[in-house]
Specification:
Chain lengths: 65, 413
């Protein structure tokens, strides 16, 4: 599974980072990027989906690998 | 008994779609049934009360409106408009200085540089650094309740945490927390229907920060105020007026709001023993439960000023009209949330917008979450068996910031 944060939509709510610090990095303004080029480690797929479903800006999506 | 269904002129509300009243006591206590009806019947309702406004209730519409900047402008964000005297003052200040309390009162392109100025003080990393201080504050408050059977969980605990935390961050005297709370309440809550009080509170806060600014100029430190005095936006230092405006915002934005959320959480767990027991048994559930508290008891409604014609669901909004950003109503939309009017303590999918959405997303959201997590965790450790000491003692404030103002509890079983 591979995910991406759309930097034009992300407003830095940091829901993703608090749910799964293993999957995201945030800068000092709160803007998020997916770690590891968005590749979700095996076993973390459910958590990644949870982040997609909790982002208030609809900024996280699954992308083609 | 007073008839709570009457407006400020004593007229009762017959039709919420064309005549809603945000200060109605029944609405403040339980707005959800009214939102549910409006969402079906009239998704953008209207009223002439309190200066007149439009009120959307659907999640998708509120998302869309929050992103219609600057057509829906943040230059007027009060649910109840300022009285004519304050209005004149605000217009004169805007002319003289260009800004009031950025970023919250500004639109693009002005908004972003001011927001970027304050965000680093509230990043996840910065906030982690405030956790130990917050724990100390909460422990001190809990120690005061040690030998007591009952307490007011809103007044003696929830209300006490946010002013102390923000005082620490701003580098101002924590010992004056009670005053800071009073100013905030006078500005955002009591002052909404009492213009004299609102103006006086505004002056008190500004005067306080102008004094602080003078002091920092003589004795610069590493606190937020000193850093703001040193900061530049587009190559220019901020005026004292702007620094005072930002400090005013940072002081008041986090007090009523966070206090309301902590208070709502304590009210909820005092009245729902099954949820309380679950949290005692599964403390790891707290972060998920806190998001549900934020969704179900969302405290904050903001306003926007319409600057160009906008038509939505037949509502024809005209320049100069006011629009409410009813984030709390969005968070009960059945299109987005299953069983929206139920508090589901382990709700996993929870795309709530209690902290707003779009460019004005709450700058203090990480801080508020931390205060909720620390405040509740320590309360539960100390008083796992607390319960409500009587519903009749519970009072709610509404309008801009909704939350319980008194929550009498029995501290142990
Ligand atoms: C549970 C507590 C809180 C809630 C529910 C809340 C809610 C909100 C909401 C809904 C907005 C959006 C305003 C808009 O769209 O016009 C906002 C903005 C803001 N909040 Fe909070 N807030 C909380 C706590 C805090 C705290 C602790 C601070 C820290 C000082 C803070 C600082 C701000 C600031 C500076 C803005 C303006 C951001 C901008 O305009 O870009 N808030 N808040
Ligand atoms: S939850 Fe969404 S908006 Fe918030 S930081 Fe993550 S990607 Fe950005």
């Amino acid at each position: 599974m591979r995910i991406r944060v759309n930097p034009n939509l992300c407003q830095g709510h940091n829901r993703c980072f608090s749910l799964a610090p293993e999957l995201f990095e945030v800068d000092e303004f709160g803007l998020a990027t997916a770690l590891n080029d968005g590749r979700v480690p095996a076993g973390m797929e459910e958590k990644a989906q949870l982040c997609i479903d909790n982002c208030p800006e609809f900024a996280i999506s699954e992308i083609e690998d | 008994m007073t008839d709570t269904s009457k407006n400020e002129n004593g007229c009762p509300v017959h039709d919420w779609a064309t005549d809603y009243d945000v200060m109605d006591e029944g609405y403040t206590r339980n707005p959800a049934p009214i939102w549910a009806e409006l969402r079906q019947k009239c998704p953008v309702a209207h009223t002439t009360r309190w200066g007149g406004s439009w009120m959307p209730t659907r999640y998708a519409d509120i998302q869309e409106m929050a992103n219609m900047v600057p057509t829906l402008s943040s230059r007027a964000i009060s649910v109840i408009p300022p009285d004519p005297v304050l209005r004149e003052e605000l217009i004169a200040e805007l002319k003289a200085y260009g800004t009031e309390s950025p970023p919250i009162t500004s639109d693009p392109p002005e908004h972003s540089p001011y927001k970027r100025l304050i965000l680093p003080f509230f990043s996840p990393r910065a906030v982690a650094g405030y956790a130990a201080m917050t724990e100390e504050i909460c422990r001190g408050l809990l120690d005061e309740l040690k030998d007591r059977d009952t307490a007011d969980a809103a007044v003696e605990y929830a209300q006490q945490i946010p002013p102390r935390v923000i005082a620490y961050i701003l580098g101002i005297d924590m010992g004056r927390a009670a005053e800071f709370t009073q100013w905030t309440q006078e500005l955002l809550e009591l002052g909404q229907t009492d213009p004299e009080l609102r103006r006086a509170a505004r002056t008190k806060i500004r005067t306080f920060f102008f004094d602080q600014i003078e002091h920092r100029k003589q004795n610069p430190g590493h606190d937020v105020i000193s850093l703001l005095l040193d900061a530049e936006v587009e190559g220019r230092r901020l005026s004292d007026h702007t620094v005072a405006g930002i400090c005013n915002l940072l002081l008041v934005a986090g007090i009523d709001t966070t206090w309301s959320s902590i208070g709502s959480a304590l009210y909820h767990f005092a009245t729902h023993p099954e949820d309380r027991k679950r949290l005692v048994a599964e403390p790891d559930l707290l972060p998920v439960a806190v998001e549900e508290v934020l969704r179900y008891y969302s405290p904050v409604t903001m306003a926007r000023k319409v600057t160009a014609e906008v038509c939505m669901h037949g509502a024809e909004m005209k320049p100069g009209d006011k629009l409410l950003m009813t984030f709390p109503a969005a968070n009960r939309d059945p299109e987005v949330f299953e069983r929206p009017d139920e508090f589901v303590i382990d709700r996993q999918q929870n795309r709530h917008i209690a902290f707003g959405t779009g460019i004005h997303r709450c700058a203090g959201s990480n801080l508020a979450r931390m205060e909720l997590l620390v405040g509740l965790r320590l309360w539960f450790e100390r008083f796992p068996d607390f319960s409500l000491a009587g519903e009749e003692g519970v009072t709610w404030a509404g309008g801009q910031v909704r939350g319980p103002r008194n929550v009498p509890v029995r501290l142990s079983a």
